[in-house]
Amino acid sequence: MSSTVIDIPIKEGEIDLNKKKKIQFPLLFNAASLIEKTCKDYDMRKVMHSIKVGIALVLVSLLYLLDPLFKKVGENAMWAIMTVVVVFEFYAGATLSKGLNRGIGTIVGGGLGCLVAIIADEVGRIGNAIAVGTSVFIFGAAATYFRMVPKIKRRYDYGVMIFILTFNLVVVSGVRADKVMELARERLSTIGMGFAVCIFTSLLIFPIWASDELHNSTANKFEKLACCIEGCFENYFRICSEKDSQPSVNDNSCKSVLHSKSNEESLANFARWEPWHGKFGLSHPWEKYLQMGEVLRELAATILSLKGCVQSPRQPSSVIRLKIKEPCEIVGLTLVWTLRELGENITKMKKCRAKVIIAPKLQSMKLELSQVTSVLGSQENGDGLAIASFVFLLVEMVEKVEELAKEVEELGEIAEFQSK
Question: 107, 113 in Cβ contact below 8 A?
């Protein structure tokens, strides 16, 4: 026998038990939703980085806690702790970059500062003030100017800043030359200890590589844009049978690609500082990732324009869109397949045969679009203009994908990816 379930409606004045619980315990439900959201955004690497920073701080704190070490370094142990706090970064390349910049800036600034202090001490009282003031002005102004040079600012900005700080601290201190040398030696040694602890914990305890992040994020962008293109085509031609529905394209992934330039440049800069590890050597062509990123952002901008075309209130009639549906869908499927193929080649580090496989398909897509343009001549101005805008954006996308294929092929050749 089959049973029948009868829903008993809730009378007026009665409160649903589930709703009553939510009313009684709003903070509990808010906390549960917050925990659920946090778990979704959970990244184990962040937890590991936090643990590594804690380990590094404990190690440098031993300079204070252990009497034999404290007797040797004294109060200068605080420079080791400051070095860990300032230098330790999320990525191993960033830690190396800041550490080496700090070390070189301290050595060069301290050395020049000691030299100027010795010369100023030999000159005399009045000459001492003139020599110190002149040197501070010349070296401070020159270093500040070089900080604004793009190439230096991109890779050595922190080192130049430390140079200015160290040079001024040593020169303006006004102590005797022998004490200046002793002070510089002691501080440099404790800074070196802090840097050594940072390198040990960053590189040897579950290292987080900027090169891996840049490589994987670049490959993922191909998939993101492929999904956006699929959404645009589905919504554009779906309205042919659903007149009342409005197209809605999720463009969050596309916007994330469009706004990724600063993050890419930072990751590429950190990756250049990282030692050989895993799949990436010392001479890996990171500049090619930046070039691909530029083309990907141009493609993302074109997709957003296509989204605007899809969501425009002035659309051609359903009959006209049915005429161009088949060739346009062929173009869309080919673009999606090509982007995913390129992303897979980057992920697996396989050589891409763009000239042999991808280029002929993209050329045939241009021929498909030329068939669509033949429909424009027999249409009225409004419908013809709408279709022309749509087709123009498709042609732009085909050209951008063709350019991406060439970039991926060049990357495989320079980086010596494996052949399929």
Answer: no
Sign of CA dihedral 52, 57, 63, 66: negative
- The set of long-range contacts for 59-64, using a CB threshold of 8 Å and a minimum separation of 24, is 59/197, 59/200, 59/201, 60/84, 60/193, 60/194, 60/197, 63/190, 63/193
Question: Per residue in 78-88, pLDDT tens?
Answer: 888 888 999 99
DSSP state of 316: -
* Secondary structure element (H or E) that encloses residue 270, with its range: helix 261-273
Q: Distance between CA 129 and CA 228 in Å, rounded?
A: 66
User: Residue holding tokens 């980086």?
Assistant: 415
Residue pair 271/210 in contact (Cβ under 8 Å)? The answer is: yes
The identity of residue 112, as a single letter, is L
How many alpha carbons lie under 13 Å from residue 178 in its C-beta half-sphere? 0
Largest CA distance in the chain: 112
- The dihedral of CA 269, 43, 52, 50: what is its sign? positive
| Cα(49)–Cα(55) distance, integer angstroms | 10
Is the Cβ–Cβ distance between 81 and 198 less than 8 Å?
A: no
In this prediction the pTM is: 0.79
Supply the DSSP symbol for 377.
Answer: G
Q: Tokens 């499927």 belong to which residue?
A: 333
* φ, ψ (nearest 5 deg) of residue 413: -70, -45
Q: What are phi and psi of 280, to 5 degrees?
A: -115, 125
CB distance 87 to 198 below 8 Å:
yes
User: Residue 141 gets which letter from DSSP?
Assistant: H
Task: Give helix 150-172 / helix 261-273 axis angle, nearest 10°.
Answer: 60
Rounded to an integer, what distance in angstroms lies between the CA atom of residue 137 and that of residue 129? 12
CA distance 58 to 56: 5
Q: Tens of pLDDT along 28-47?
A: 445 455 445 545 445 788 89
Burial 326-359 (b: 16+ CB within 10 A, else e): ebbeebbebbbebbebbbebbeebebbebeeebb
- Residues in CB range of 1: below 8 A, 6 or more apart: none
Contacts of 88 (CB under 8 A, 6+ apart): 52, 53, 56, 95, 198, 201, 202
Q: How confident is the model at residue 310 (pLDDT cuts 50, 70, 90)?
A: confident
3-state helix, strand, coil split of the chain in percent (to 5) is 80, 0, 20
